[in-house]
Design brief:
Length: 448
């Protein structure tokens, strides 16, 4: 990659990570009667199935506008290809693909295409953590150093001296697992802010794909925290640390635990940290934009992650590849209160904890332009739909750096999953998240 392209792509990555973090898309309305509760459990245990939109109170013609809108982005040369999926009341009512999986190869996008989901890995890691929470392996109020002794006595950046050297101070309290799971523990990413600590993250290459999770912990243990634990929401490597915690608490490899406890029970047959050879023909090409706006095929992060080989570094914060159907099955399980097709992953009240605001009382929201939005355990939460320009209070969601997006709406009993492979830069990625939200909700004719 030339220096010019490298600078362009670095900007693209940072821009789109922020876009992923800013996506404002909403809460749990508990059953009010015993009969409603029994009906919910019955629905949750039923198999995820296909149905006509009208069966769940949606209008087919209006729902088709999702496809039309996405096709328009492809026709305008803004996106290569898109897959979108909607489920309501445990029934799939929309599953469409448009455009190309690979433009140069003239390979049409298909519903079973595989995508780098980047930060949409985070909610899956959070569910893995909560499986262990249910087993009594930790409390949310526990200090992280109880399970990661390397984190004992971490210092905190407190400014610079006259010579520009970093000044540190002790933590005012020990980082807790709740803070770790809500991006308020003091860690950083090296991507979204300019500070001495961020520079240190980049110098040691904290998330080196050629290393392992223990290497990451050792690097972080030698660095100060960017800010005091509990002082602010700051997007960070904390979910990669959670992946390491899953290993320590379970005694299994992280990927092995995900396969055994989440992917296999849910029938997520296409979700892994790499794409095996027999599935490579389904793997979507990722694109950026040239300065003139043309789509340019290019791998992220300088192409350091070769998804076609098994990964040494199993990133809980952004390493998974998945399909639209697989992610729908995961998200529907979450909406169902921890169960899908009779396979229970979590208890309903455990899932409820994940989409309650877990930020310290002094932290109003997540910032980054996501108004009316707070944070639970590895999910963002719409607390004020008016401020967030959304629809349902309590909707929860996240997105991925290459444009993938999803939301879960317990009020309307709805899940949306969207998949693209697109990094923005000087040319922004079109607002697939906002437009898909409008198109989906204007198709609901029978609100809950």
């Amino acid at each position: 990659m030339t220096q010019q392209k490298s600078k362009f792509f670095t900007a693209s990555v940072k821009s789109h990570f922020i876009l992923a973090a800013c996506v404002a898309l909403a809460a749990c309305s508990p059953a009010s009667t015993v009969n409603e509760s029994s009906q919910q459990i019955s629905t949750s245990s039923a198999a995820l199935q296909f149905a006509a939109p009208e069966e769940v109170g949606m209008d087919s013609a209006r729902l088709d506008r999702v496809t039309q809108t996405m096709q328009g982005y492809v026709d305008d040369g803004l996106l290569a290809g898109v897959v979108t999926m909607v489920a309501r009341d445990n029934k799939i009512v929309h599953f469409e693909s448009v455009g190309f999986r690979d433009i140069e190869a003239e390979a049409t996008m298909t519903n079973d295409a595989l995508f780098r989901i980047y930060s949409m890995t985070k909610p899956i890691t959070g569910v893995a953590m909560m499986i262990l929470y249910e087993e009594g392996k930790f409390r949310l109020s526990d200090p992280v150093e109880k399970y990661i002794p390397e984190f004992a006595n971490l210092q905190v950046a407190a400014g610079e001296d006259a010579d520009g050297n970093l000044i540190t101070e002790p933590q005012n309290h020990k980082m807790t697992i709740r803070e770790l799971m809500s991006h308020s523990g003091g860690l950083s990413y090296g991507l979204f802010s300019q500070s001495k600590v961020d520079d240190m993250y980049n110098e040691v290459n904290v998330l080196d794909p050629d290393s392992n999770l223990q290497d990451m912990i050792d690097k972080l243990a030698a660095l100060p925290l960017r800010q005091q634990p509990g002082s602010m929401w700051h997007y960070s490597v904390s979910v990669d640390v959670q992946g390491y915690l899953v290993e320590k608490l379970s005694g299994q490899g992280f990927g092995e635990f995900l396969e055994e406890r989440i992917f296999e029970p849910l029938g997520m047959t296409d979700t892994d940290f790499y794409v095996p050879e027999e599935k490579a023909s389904r793997f979507a090409q990722v694109y950026g934009y040239a300065p003139n706006g043309d789509l340019v095929a290019q791998e992220a992060f300088g192409g350091t992650n070769d998804y076609l080989v098994d990964q040494e570094f199993e990133s809980g914060g952004g390493g998974l590849v998945s399909s639209t159907m697989d992610y729908m099955r995961f998200a529907q399980m979450v909406l169902n209160g921890g169960i899908l097709d009779g396979e229970r992953i979590l208890a309903p009240l455990t899932v409820d904890i994940m989409h309650r605001n877990q930020l310290p009382k002094s932290v109003a929201g997540i910032g980054l332009g996501a108004r009316g939005t707070t944070f639970g355990l590895d999910f963002a939460i719409i607390e004020d739909p008016v401020e967030a320009e959304s629809y349902s209070k309590g909707e929860f969601y996240w997105g991925g750096a290459a444009g993938t997006w999803f939301w879960i709406d317990p009020v309307e009993n709805l899940v949306f999953v969207g998949m693209i492979q697109q990094f923005g830069g000087a040319v922004p990625v079109p607002d697939v998240r906002g437009s898909s939200r409008r198109m989906v909700y204007q198709a609901i004719m029978v609100p809950k």
